[in-house]
Amino acid sequence: MSSRIPGFYKLPVSERHARLAAGTSLDAADLDAFLQGLSPDTADHMVENAVGVFGLPLGLALNFVINDQPVIVPMAVEEPSVVAACSHIAGLARRSGGFSAEADPSHMVGQVQLLDVADPEAVRARLEAQKPALLEQANTFCEGLVARGGGCFDLVVRILPPLTEGPHAELDSDRPMMVVDLLIDTKDAMGANAVNSVAEGIAPALEEVAGHRSHLRILSNLSDRRCARATMRIAFADLCKKDVPAADREGRGREIAESIVEAYRFAARDPYRACTHNKGILNGVDAVAIATGNDWRAIEAGAHAHAARGGRYTSLTWYRVLDDAGVLEAGIELPMAVGTVGGATRVHPTVAACRKLLGPFAASAASLAGLLAAVGLSQNAAALRALSTEGIQRGHMSLHARQVALAAGASGEEVDKVAQVLTAETCFRENRAREVLNDLRGNA
Ligand code: MEV
To answer: Ligand 1 centroid vs 418 CA: distance in angstroms?
Structure first.
């Protein structure tokens, strides 16, 4: 099915389901899973002290074409305008060929901390001399990964010197510390469990070779050996609103492209802006991570740490104007530890249906990672375009108005009618929504 479904946003939910049933591989049970979600019984097996399940809206971002393949993207998110923003930019990008996306192999790091090491260089030499035997032993703790062609393929020993400056320097001690980073290919799994099993399993052998005690044994969420990247182009003319006359579109669009680049440079230079800029990226990334049953906290942690890799927190995306081609070009790079096997992906019926909708993009961790990067980029480009032109509040508040209308008791068609009045009046108080609703019902 094409990812372009004109007028989809105007249809009632049941009609949207009918379109999906007709045009995708989703069947009645999958569509039912969109409505029913996780059962309380399954939830009870997933966490402790379960008392129920917690719902989030599930929307579909349209118009995406990634590496020449159309894809409809499920997004679980409570914030209005995220789904619309991604769909909108994806629609503009598709006119210039869509997104290109790719991801590194799924290389994760498991860490074993070594303490009170009297002669760190000698310990490093001993560990490196024993590397082949240690790797062989490490792989006995992740046999499933090894069977799928992955497993522990290297270890890196690092000496961690005491801090001499920064917020923690005063509380640090001069006792020596080292870390053994175990490099593990987790293939199509996110891999947290396998990596932690290897770190815990191999620690006694590392202690023996090192001759010193180990302490923490845990994966690193800075999965920067596992980055995903995406790029896209948007023609200048496509950056304009529909009402800009044809003759002015190229020039006006170029101005918008320049102002988007200025907005990006603000984030590149200033951590205060970069934090908000990257939060917008994660609005999109997290929503797809949740819908596909992935650990979005791990993605968040990795993204922010990666943004600070140069010693200064900065933007995860970049933008430039290409005058000769008449386009704005943009790209993103961020760590993307996601899986398409294991974890919640197996037990959550909505996740299963979302993955089915993604088709080949949910067939491997690398394709899913590339998709998430493209979605993050689209969300960021939408935010920068809005912020560089009319600001985000107009679009945001009209969507917010629908939530206020719902909170005031509106249902069905009433929601849009009440929201329209609130938006026109730029008044988003629940009291006013109730008055409008009462008038509407009185007039009906
Ligand atoms: C709001 O959730 C996200 C934005 O603040 C992102 C940004 O400022 O780039 C709009």
So the answer is: 26
CB of 382 within 8 A of CB of 400?
A: no
Q: Is 279 known to be catalytic?
A: yes
**Which of the residues 131, 215, 279, 356 is marked catalytic?**
279
Q: Is 45 a catalytic residue?
A: no
Q: In b/e form, how buried is each residue of 130-152, taking b as 16+ CB within 10 angstroms?
A: beeebbebbbebbeebbeeebbb
In SS3 terms, 237-249 reads as HHHCCCCCCHHHH
pLDDT of residue 345: 63
Q: What is the pLDDT of residues 343-385, one digit of tens each?
A: 776 789 999 999 999 999 999 999 999 999 999 999 999 999 9
Domain 107-220 part of CATH 3.30.70.420: yes
**Which among 88, 283, 316 is the best mutation to test ligand 1's pocket, defined by most ligand atoms within 8 Å of the CB?**
283
pLDDT of residue 393: 72
CA dihedral angle for residue 73, residue 399, residue 6, residue 328, rounded to 10 degrees: -70
- CA 343 to each of CA 46, 146, 282, 309, 348: distance values in angstroms, whole numbers, following the listed order: 10, 18, 21, 29, 10
- Is it true that 8-102+227-389 and 107-220 share their CATH fold? no
Query: Contact 418/408 with Cβ under 8 angstroms?
Result: yes
- Give me the residue spans of the domains in the chain: 8-102+227-389, 107-220, 396-443
Pick the CATH number of 8-102+227-389 from 3.40.50.1010, 3.40.50.1370, 3.60.110.10, 3.90.770.10: 3.90.770.10
Question: Is the CB of residue 3 less than 8 Å from the CB of residue 63?
Answer: yes
- The pair of structure tokens assigned to 284 is 């999109």
Verify whether residue 295 is a known catalytic residue.
yes
Query: pLDDT for 160-214, tens place per residue?
Result: 999 999 999 999 999 999 999 999 999 999 999 999 999 999 999 999 999 999 9
**Three-class DSSP category at 149:** coil
- Residue 178's DSSP bridge partners are 114, 159
Distance, in Å, from the CA atom of 97 to the CA atom of 325, rounded to the nearest integer, reads: 13
> Could you tell which of 273, 275, 277 is best to mutate to test the pocket of ligand 1, judged by most ligand atoms within 8 Å of the CB?
277
Q: How is residue 253 annotated by DSSP?
A: H
Low-confidence spans in the chain with pLDDT less than 70? 345, 443-444
